[in-house]
Amino acid sequence: MWVPFDADVVLDDAAIALDEVPPAKEDTEKIAGRLRGHLVRLVTIAVAAESEQDTAAAQLIEHARLLGAEDLPGDHREAVGQLRRMGWTASELLDRLVAMRCLKEVA
Predict the structure, then answer these.
(1) Where are the alpha helices (DSSP H) in the chain?
(2) SS3 for 70?
(3) Which of 2, 16, 38, 69 is the most buried (most CB within 10 A)?
(4) % of the chain residues with pLDDT over 90
(5) pLDDT tens track for 5-22
(6) Per-residue confidence at 23, pLDDT binned at 50, 70, 90?
(7) Conformation bin of residue 101: beta by default, left when phi > 0, alpha when psi is -120 to 50
(8) What phi-psi label fits residue 50: left (phi over 0), alpha (psi between -120 and 50 degrees) or beta?
């Protein structure tokens, strides 16, 4: 089933990952799964829009691909660190795609 892209959901999940209060251990896998999904969709949008020609976008795309392929560490502190990297990358790639007019501006 196709679900339309919702940038606000990406930003909400990134905010959860980047919050000063880390997510509970039992929530990390669920949040990681959502962030992986966001990274995959953002990379797909970026590639379709030929954004890889932009150096900053290309770096974010590569970073998103690497993070999306990594397993979540078993140690909670390390898992939170990975969630934060995923959240930051999703947020930055979204911002870059908006700046390049590949996506509409979000609130």
Answers:
(1) 7-18, 28-48, 55-69, 76-99
(2) coil
(3) 38
(4) 89
(5) 899 999 999 999 999 999
(6) very high
(7) left
(8) left
